[in-house]
Amino acid sequence: MSLDDSIEMNVGGLTLDPATKSPIVVLRDSGNTVNLPIWIGLLEATAIATELEGIEMARPMTHDLLRDLIGELGAQVVRVEISDLRDNTYYARIHITTSGGARIIDARPSDAISLALRVKSPIFVARKVLEASEAAVTVDQEEQAAADPDLSTVSREKWSEILEKMSPDDFKYKM
Question: Is the pTM of this model over 0.70?
Fold first, then answer.
């Protein structure tokens, strides 16, 4: 995918689907005109939330380990991209440069986003993904100014409350 065929987006926040209580990461373009919600697993949402909130864990979490490993090997994450949408499943790619050249690695969007946050790399979404996604929302600037929609982020206290109520069966998700 060329960068001309994509839009740079940022993490606009995390929220919960009111019907299923599944976590959703919301990507938002810099002009706040396009929002793309992506349903993710609870563990992935927790990884994103800890980075967004600047919470330092006592030991490296999986995405911290991946960031450190990439750095120790002398590689660099150039960008991540949400590259495709097939059968209601989003696909992502992590673009890495190494001494041996450029590499593209297949990833789940939640993992790619979590890594991008940790290494401060840009996140791109293919225009074809936005066009194909029924969940993508184009925000009318006038409506936005009038309503000032604000995606509520899930606070540390809310995550604690959610996690306390969960059983081990709740941590299963479809791959």
Answer: yes
Order across the sheet with 76-86: list the strands. Answer: 101-107, 89-98, 76-86, 123-126, 6-16, 23-29, 34-39, 137-138
Domains of the chain: 3-167 (3.10.690.10)
**Both tokens of residue 64?**
């911290």
pLDDT in tens, 112-171: 999 999 999 999 999 999 998 877 777 654 444 444 444 344 455 554 555 555 554 544
State how far the Cα of 19 lies from the Cα of 1, in Å rounded to an integer.
34
| Contacts for 169-174: CB closer than 8 Å, 24+ residues apart | 170/42, 171/41, 171/42, 171/43, 173/41, 173/42
Q: What backbone torsions phi and psi does residue 28 show, to the nearest 5 degrees?
A: -140, 135
